[in-house]
Structures are given as C-alpha cells and as structure tokens.
Amino acid sequence: MGCFSSKIPVRASTPKPLPPPTPPRRETTEDFKSTHVNIQIDTRTDENKIPERVQGYPNPTPSSHSNGNIPRRHHWFKDDKFNNASDDADLFTTEIAVDDDDIDLDTMSDEIPEPVKPKRIRPASGVKPVLSYDEIDGHAKQADAHLLDSFQDLVEYLTEPLSSDKYPKTKTARAIVVWLSQQKLEGVSYGEKNLDTPRGLLQYIKEDRMTYTTCYTILCRKAGLQCVTIKGHVKAASYEPGDESVPSSSWCAVYVEYGWQIVHPFWVCRALFGHNLGGWIKVEKDGKSMRKSEKASSGVERNTFTERYFMPNPEEFIYECCASEKEWQLVHPRSVVSSVQEFVQKAYLFPPFFGVGFKLVSDPKCVLNSKDGFCKIEMKARTANAHMVVLKYELFKKEQEADSYTTPNKDEDVARMVFNSRAGEMFTFDIRFPKTGIYKLVIYGGPHKSASLRLCEFKLVCDKEMVGRNLLPLEGADIGWGPGPVSVEAGLLMPSKPSGLIPVNEKEKKTEVKFQLRDMGDKYSAVVHGEVGGRRKQLEDDNVVDIKKNKQLHQIIIIVKIPDKGEYGLSIQHMAAKSRDKQGTNVCNYLISTIAHKPEHANVRNAKKKLSDAVAENVEPRRWKQQISEIQSCIERCKKEKVSDTDDEIIAANAMVWFLTCKDKLRDCVLRRNLHVIRKTLQIVSLYKNQDALTKEIKEVKELEEDIVALRGFARQVPKLEEANKEIVALKHAPDEVHNTFKALLVLLGDSENSLGEWSDIQARMKSSTHTVETSILGKMGRIQRQEINQDRLEKAVRILHRYTEDQVRKVNGDAHSFYSWIENVINVHDGK
Length: 833
Description:
This protein is α+β, with helices and mostly antiparallel strands.
C-alpha cells in the first residue's frame, strides 16, 4: 500500500489554503498550577503493524540538544528577566575600568560615541534562511481539508516553505506534528479507514485502531524522513511515586540535521484535563493546617499542543519515558537507565523542574524513607536566577491513614511540619513527622509573582515519628524560610545569613542578621516565636530582639538573644511608608536552632572568622580593590579547610565581592568621566541582582552621564567659536554689552571679577597665542564639567550676564551673541532647565 515508500516528488502547483480551522488548545503555565492537566497513555492498539525502523538508518547516538542554532521557543514563564538572567560572575568578563593610578583626566578623549544603529542582517551569499517555528506552525495550521485525500498533496503543502530553509528535516518533523495536533477526533468522521490517505489514518486513530506514534511514523516516512518507533515504559496520569510497575508505551525518534531527536506525538497532540487519582488528604499547605480530601476524577482527553514533547532534551525526558533498548534512550552513558526497576525508582520530576533550572541534590529516588521521623529533599537552582525563585508545597497523607488527623481547634495547630528553606541557590525541604504513615509532598515553584508550576512529587514513608522535637515554631506562610525575592522587594538586600536556618551555640544563645538597605527610611520590626509549655507563642521579652541601623554602611542589624536551647522562629516585618498596618507584612523568616549547631575545628573557626572580618571591614573607597582581594583569599582558605560553598559565610562573602566590584566600577566612572565607560558600566550593573543596594551610586553615575551628554554638546560648539573669538580679540574698544558678556564668561570659568575691569584685561585672557591648550579660554570651554562650576561663580556669572538681554547683545555684535548663547545654555544645563 506504499506506507513505507521514499519521499514523493513534489508537484509544481500547491493547493490554495482555505481559512484555517479553530486551533486546538495550546498548553500554558495555567495547566501546571496543580493537577489541571496530565499526560496519559495512548490506549489505542495498532491494527496494522509497521517496521519499528528501516534497514540503513543511522545508529542511535546522543546528539547535541541545541546543535544547529535552532532556538528553543518555549519558556515556562513570561518573565524575561528570569528567563534571561545571568550569573553575577559573568558580568565583568571584559575589564572596562583601570586602577586609580592609571587615570589621567586631562588626556582622556572628549569624543562621545554615537548611538549604535541596528543593522539589518542579510544572509551572506549561499547561506540559507531559517524559518521560525511560529512561521512553520502558522502554515501547518492553514492546511485545507482536501489535503486529507493525498499523502503527496499533504507533504507538498507542509514542506512548501522549506525548499530553501537551512533545517528542512527539523521543520518538516515540526510541521507534521503541528498538523496532526489540529485534527479533531470528537464529533467528526473521516470515512473509511485505510493506509493510503491521511484521512484513512485519522479514521484508524478515531476508532482506536492506530496509535499516534504509528500515524506520525507513517507521515514522517511519507515525507522522506527517517523515523523510528521506540518502545519503553512511561510515568503518566495513573502513575504515583512509589508505584512498583509502570505501563509500556511507544514514541518516536526522527533523524534530522543534528542527529536523532525524540518526538512524542501523542503527548504533543493530546492531554488529559481535570484528572485526579484521589485517595489522599491534604494536611498542610505552605505552613497552614488543613484537612481536604482529594476527590478522584477520570478527567477529559482533548486536543492541545504540548511544546515540551517536540524534540525534548533526552536527559530530561528520561524521567518520564524510558526506552527498553538503552541506545534509544539517547542519553549520555552516565545517564543510561539500566532497568525498569531503576526507572520506577527515579525521582518523579516534571518538565518545569528543568525549565526553572533545578537539579536534585539529595537522594534521586521517588520514595524517601524517614530517619528518626525526618525526611530531607535538597534541590539546586541556577545561580543566575535562584534569587528570583519562590517554592511552595502541599503535603498529603494517605486517606486510610489520615484518620489520626482531626480538624485543628483554636488551641491546637498540627501544621508546621515542612521546613521550606533556601540558602543562595540551594533549596531544602526538611519534613518532620509527628505521626507515622504514608505521605506525599508536591513541590511547586517559579519566579516571584508568577504562576507556581508543579515541579516534582515524592512519596514519604514514616515508620517512626520524631522524638524530642517539636513542630516548627513559626508558620512560613507563602514565603518560606530564609531571605528571598519577597525580602528583596521589601528593601532587605545582601543578607549576612543567606540560609533560613541559623545554628546557634547553646552557650551563647545569640546571633545577628545584617542586611544592606535600599532605603534607610523604611521601617522594620521583628518578633521571635518559640515553644513554651508545649505551645507556640510569641516571646514578649524586650531583650529578645534588638534592631539597629548603621547609616554609614547603609545597613540594618537584627540582634536576637534566645532564652534557652531549642528552636525559635524569627519573623521580620516591613512597614510600608503609607500603610496603616502597624504590624507590617512578613517578608523574611529564620529558624534559630541550638539543635542544628555543630562544633567546628579550630582551623575552620579561624578561617571563617577571618573571612567574616574581611567582609565586615569598612575601608576607604580607594582600598575597595584590596578588600576584594583579601575576601577572595579568605574564601580560598576556607575552601582548603573544606568549608562548603553553601555555608552562610561563603555565600555572604561572594555576594560582598560582587557588591564591592560593582561599587568600585561605579566609582571609576566618576573618576574617569568617560561616556563609553559610564554607559558600559551602567549596562552591566543593570544586570546585577543586588543593584538596589547601589541606588545612590547608580544615580550619581546616571546624573554624570546626563551632564556629560549635555555639556559635551556645548564643547563641540567651541571650534565654531574660534573665528568669533578672533574678531572679538581684534576689537580695540568693546561696547558695554560685549565687555559684559565676556566678563560673565571668564567669571563662569574661574577668573576673578575684580581683574576684568578693563577691556584690555579681557583681551589678554582671550588671546589663545599667549596660553596653552589647558589654560586658554577656548580650551577650558571645550573641557567644561558641571561639578567644576560652584554655586558662587554661577550666581556671579548670571548676575553679570543678565545686565543685558540676549537680544540687546545680538543687535550690538553677532560674535558676542554667539558666546552669550553658549553661556546661557551652560547655565541652564547646570540649573537643570
């Protein structure tokens, strides 16, 4: 029947497309907020068997996921700042400032670089264009219904735009699956099922006698693509962490310009909405107690377009689908899953987990067994955007075991089991179990103020409840524990304690937390909660918390003294300037614990003490570079003592290095007064995550930029005044209007008014032949800087100049009028007019 023939020749004519059908629903971030949408198993059976692969196909080998320079068009969030964030360590890859000793203000170029005009990029001769996925998708969606009657016509239409594209194979594979996603199954009939037309294939699918995998494979081969069917096991809608077996299924791999790439046609085209397995009781959500039964729901299957299953990264895809033949997993040898049992045990990670940029650091299993009533999950985010991420969670207990949970009354709170903490790029979920049982933890996340997407799920087995420990002393609410984007938004920057957990020596029972402040005028308060007599309460003693501000360092210091050993919750509130809420908004929480404190060797203590001292040292600006070097040396010494990169002292020290680096670059801008350097530095600092801590410095440099742009414009006018100057100098007797104008000019540039009483005095100063470039009037005019003009000089110059109007001077002498206008403009720029 010609199902496996080579590519069909393309006809000369192309059918004119009719208005496109209503597009299927495309997946959005809303779909992953909870259990809104799920992938499922294609339960259809293949009535017609086709070869899984054809003899002569290339061997399966891992290929570069991003090779070919085809941009991945899918982002999980619409936050460009989050998606395009860069690591602070990458900001200054190119040195743009020099040491203070190398600065020579007098020899710097006065030229202002012109704004770069965007150039239209034209492909070089012989270079083929690259069509975007949007263009390919739009064309595929407009395919007319009559193309269903012929493979040749359908292939011709879908590949028509690709005749000169650089990546025709990739785009053909894309066009086919987009077209397939448009074909409705509900409420339509495609006639008689057969293998000779696209229409016949769709009828097979509609009658559940052909899988999407087989249909896509046939279509790809009809288009001349090498396409194989891969069989393996999957984790889909009916799966839950801890299931001992998983169903088998199939998907495809297509050989394109950069090797074999995975396509899961069924998961691209169809999804299950509203599905819920049920059987669980939600007992806690973001620190709040609840008792909510999860009702079972079969859900509804319908068309969609799930971008992530078109050529996904095999290293991520392996967490959902595992090919039975290892070579067709298409992963690096270190990532190969050797058995179904290993696949079943792998952590249950959803695509957004990788989209956010997380890596699982703790035990990579989907089932975790508690130890002494505790379980811990650790994840590492991308350094570039970890500071923007907020994680949330839901904790469930197996329904038949949840009868031990009763609805909490006013005197009892059974929540506060989950310690959702952060420390730089590390995120930790430390779960404490007051009762044994089977639990499930679902973790959500995303950038602050964006939709929280489902990232991962874990089954937690507790066979022994915790002993000698209490529930958490404070509700973390939506912000969790530790400083994050909420505290940054509230103006608390660069915390000295980046981790939500502060271990404290039980003998000292004291700690302090420092923040750089965005605004010294902002108000903050702090309270401490602890377990007293078996109940959580706020400690009322005034000696527990002390808040101070250091105006010189622009810091706030929160000092906490706990009354006894144990665990205490520090809650920091921010009071907005115009808010009537006297209690403020909770912006940061810390768990202060003597239990978590571990003694350190003397060498480690000494190394960390020197690092802390180097960070805290308040040095003169000219020594910032030296301080940066000292901090970096102390960091290296700590690393030699095996101090972890996630240690609070190391995280805070690295933050201080980049803070001082940016601050020093901005200082260089002020010293150098070079417009190119200023603009480059401002561009770099705009990407710095703690730029709000440099508000004053950035403002100063931006004002300097404005001054240079404005005054340098007048400097470029000076050469045009040279002829006018010659005419003025040649005057033997100057009218009062002319004499007065040049007296104002010389006073503005620094001369004494008393020495300019005679016209001959002014003539002598204006003659360029008797002065060097540096001391001549025209030379000073060409290098004029706003800060060189003090208020006294400015006021005297204005008083002298305005004895006559501009019109009066113009009528007397045109050359003097040119200088009058220049003086007036400089005065206006200085006054901000």
